[in-house]
Task: structure prediction
Amino acid sequence: MSKTVVVPGSFDPLTNGHLDIITRAAKVFGDVNVVISNNSSKTSLFTVEERRKLIEEVTATIPNVTVRTSSGLLIDYAKSIGAAAIVRGLRAVSDFEYEMQITSMNRVLDEGIETFFIMTNNQYSFLSSSIVKEVAKYNGDISALVPKPVEAALREKFNLS
Result:
């Protein structure tokens, strides 16, 4: 399939759960745009540029993935690149309620852009960037939770050896 899609998120930091969704979307869709945005309700550990570089490094072997940043409405970005759909990952039923609200608003703004949900791999159903940051902050083992470059970047941020 040669459709262009957007996989949005704050990715602060990218987790193996995020990477699972990106990788699986890349197997189904032709052009996958990972779009990093700042979530104004969260305090970021990594700058948008740091996140972009980390995701580019981690996804370098996936030829149809492009990493971009956006500061406006996701639907406006999706329209600007001619995206056919937005791809979102779901971990649990609680994610569905939030995602349904966002999807409904996006359909009001542009009913021509669909949203596809991909259920996360069960091994990542508990995983969030917030949990990863908390465990990393106290020097916990995050090696199974994030890609190696992200683990190294977290260790550096928290001045851990």
